[in-house]
């Protein structure tokens, strides 16, 4: 159920469809009066769209890494007059975001709570949306005051009548088997945990863990080898002896390679 009556026409510039779909769900949850006008995947298309339709929107959500380069290139080719909320896995671009029309900067994977804080900030600043140097300095102060996101780094599991705490460096991967989610340790021990893979994506450090398909979230240190597989897919060989194949689905290969290369 929507909790707010904030009315906005929104443009989403993002090349990852799961991220777009999640953002749309969160926006609708926040306010039924928020409407996504368009969704764009590239710098080139964004420039073309903004030149023709910018007057139709109130707010832009923008990823920094797009299919054809950094989204900051957009600002070199068209005058962006609408406020922007950046959503990215790259926190090193924070100050660059505030040199343009950035009013907030959210790190992936975002949560509904993260988004709510940004939209509440927008509501508070709505009367001051003509950005100048003074407003930008104010926004930098807001950014510096924001708490650093903390990721979950240990899990409590049950072992008979005992409970144990397993730290993230002891985890090889998380595995979905039907409705059950297992935590698999480096010693090949299996524990059922009360999470979904979707909820784990939001609380795990995305630089260390990555969801490669519908069934697995992998720890970077648990990967022994990656093999080019059929139909442009990849096969992951874990450091532990695992009886099932771990295949990176074709639509996730590019994202997986960027994560594996340290780009996400």
Structure characteristics:
8 helices, OB fold (Dihydrolipoamide Acetyltransferase, E2P), 30% helix, single chain, 2 domains, alpha/beta, 264 residues, 17 strands
SSE topology sketch:
Blueprint: E1 8-13, H1 17-30, E2 34-40, H2 43-53, E3 59-62, E4 65-66, E5 69-70, H3 72-77, E6 84-88, H4 94-99, E7 102-107, H5 112-125, H6 133-145, E8 154-159, E9 162-167, E10 171-177, E11 180-185, E12 190-193, H7 197-203, E13 209-211, E14 216-219, E15 223-228, E16 234-238, E17 246-248, H8 253-260
Parallel strand pairs: 1-2, 1-3, 3-6, 6-7
Antiparallel strand pairs: 4-5, 8-9, 10-11, 10-14, 11-12, 13-14, 15-16, 16-17
Write structural notes for this entry.
With 264 residues, the protein is an alpha/beta fold. The protein has 2 domains: 138 residues, Rossmann fold, CATH 3.40.50.2300; 107 residues, OB fold (Dihydrolipoamide Acetyltransferase, E2P), CATH 2.40.50.40. It is built from 8 helices and 17 strands. The strands form 5 sheets. It has a 5-stranded parallel sheet with strand order 2-1-3-6-7. A 5-stranded antiparallel sheet has the order 12-11-10-14-13, with helices on one face.
């Amino acid at each position: 159920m929507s909790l707010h009556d904030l009315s906005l026409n929104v443009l989403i510039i993002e090349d990852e469809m799961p991220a777009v779909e999640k953002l749309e769900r969160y926006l609708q949850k926040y306010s039924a009066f928020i409407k996504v006008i368009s969704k764009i995947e590239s710098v080139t298309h964004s420039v073309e769209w903004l030149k023709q339709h910018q007057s139709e929107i109130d707010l832009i959500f923008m990823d920094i890494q797009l299919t054809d380069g950094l989204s900051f290139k957009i600002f070199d080719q068209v005058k962006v007059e609408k406020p922007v909320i950046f959503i990215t896995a790259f926190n090193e671009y924070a100050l660059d975001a505030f040199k343009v029309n950035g009013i907030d900067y959210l790190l992936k994977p975002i949560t509904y709570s993260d988004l709510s804080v940004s939209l509440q900030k927008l509501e508070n600043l709505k009367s001051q949306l003509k950005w100048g140097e003074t407003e930008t300095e104010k926004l930098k102060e807001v950014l510096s005051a924001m708490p650093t996101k903390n990721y979950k780094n240990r899990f409590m599991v049950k072992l008979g009548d005992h409970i144990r705490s397993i730290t993230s460096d002891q985890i090889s991967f998380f595995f979905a088997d039907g409705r059950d989610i297992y935590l698999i340790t480096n010693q090949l021990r299996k524990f059922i945990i009360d999470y979904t893979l979707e909820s784990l994506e939001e609380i795990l450090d995305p630089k260390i863990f990555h969801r490669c398909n519908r069934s697995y979230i992998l720890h970077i240190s648990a990967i022994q080898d990656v093999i080019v597989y059929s139909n442009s897919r990849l096969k992951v060989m874990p450091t532990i002896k695992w009886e099932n194949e771990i295949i990176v689905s074709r639509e996730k290969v590019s994202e997986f390679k960027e994560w594996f290369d340290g780009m996400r």
